[in-house]
Structure formats: structure tokens, C-alpha cells
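Archive maintenance. Older records in this collection stored only the sequence; we are now back-filling the structure field for every entry so that each record is complete. The fields below show one back-filled record exactly as it appears after the update. Entries are processed alphabetically, and Probable membrane transporter protein is next in the queue.

ARCHIVE ENTRY
Title: Probable membrane transporter protein
Organism field: Vreelandella gomseomensis
Length field: 246
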Amino acid sequence: MLPDYSLIAWLLIVFSVYLTGVSKGGFAGGFGTLSVPLMALAISPAQAAGLLLPLLLVMDVFAVKAWWGRQAVAEVWRFVPGLFIGVAVGTLLFDSLSEQGLRLTLGVITLMFAAYMLLKPVAKKPISSRWALPAASICGFTSFMAHAGAPPLNVYLLPRKLSKETFIATCAVTFAVVNVIKLAPYMWLGEINVTSAWASLVLVPIAWIGVRNGLWLQSRVNEALFYRLVILAMFLVGFNLIYQAV
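Back-filled structure field:
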């Protein structure tokens, strides 16, 4: 049985899933961070996160298949311990936050990511690989709380001076790993249940279309303008979530 959401909620969910698929396809990387905040405008953040995770796993299959072999394997292995640490911390803290607390956390994460995308510095030389553990730990935590693992990962990876394809492929594999790690805790916490699973199943075609469009767009559309629109939208959504929380 599908969740009894309003029409507006379903429209936001469908749009959010599509955006996540586009991001997974490699276009405007990190764009999927907007998905849970958008959904949380109409349903609870916990419901949004639980509904989206099975879809993320489906998208990961498509994305990893498309980009496999071009990832920086050493970087992915450096991330794995930190991803486990971040997910573990998120699992322990998840029940301690109220719905309003989750909205506030999500709003702050959204604004931080938007500010980072707007002001991100251009590094003169690659940063040390020892920063992989803290970056991955924060990635695991923010990914667990709101599927928002891109900001801390990008803060580390962008200065590593990877090629575009290697960057996209490394992100695709890393997010697939963290989403698999999150699955058992989400089920244990009850964020994934029969009702949310049915909703996720219905939305699989939207996820697939999004990934395919992302793969097509990433080599054909100017990302600069697209990023500016994404950043503007994230500021608006982030402020709205914080307003709802307080």
C-alpha cells in the first residue's frame, strides 16, 4: 500500500527522485543533496530519507555500471573506514533528534552545502590523503542523516586534482558503498518499511530516467548556469526548512 501523501508531496517526491538520478548520472555532481530537503517540505525528513535510500541503491547500480573502471581505487579504499564511522555515529544520534531537530539539521546542511558551492576555494596544490578519513567520516554522517554526503567528499576530492571522469566515477563508487552501509541501520531504525518500500518501487522508473538523462546531459549542457540555479534553489529550501523548524 502506498503512503497517503498529498498531490503536492508526490510531485515534490517525483521531482526530487528525478534530480537525484540526474546527479547520479554525473551531471552537476552533488545535485542530489537537494532531494531530501525538497521532500522534507511536504513529508518528514525521516520518511524522505527512508523512501529515498532503496532508490539510491538502484541508481547506484546504473551509475557504477556506467562509470566502473574509471574510479580512483586508492581514494575509495581510503574512504571506507571513515564511511563506517560516520554511519555509526548517525545511527546512534538519529533517535535523539526530533522531527523539528531533523528539519533544522537538514536546513543547516543544505545552507552549508550551498555556501560551499558558491564560495569553494580553488586549491593551488592537492591536499594530503590523510584528510580522507575525516572527510569520509563527515560524509558518512551527513549521508546517513540526509543523503547529503557530497559536500564533505567534494571538499576533499576537488583539491586532489582528479580528472572529470575520475572524479565522477570515484564519487559514484563511494556513494554506492556508503548507501550499502546505511541499509541495515535504516531497516533497524524502521526508516525503511513495507509502505516506503512500495513507494520506492513505484518510483524506480523515475530514478532510471534521471540517471540516463544525467549521463546524457553531463557531456552536452553547460554546468555553470545549472550550478547557479541549483545553489539558488538550495538557499531557498534551506532557509525554508530552518523557518519551519524554529
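Update note: The chain has a mean pLDDT of 84. The longest helix spans residues 164-189.
Entry marked complete.
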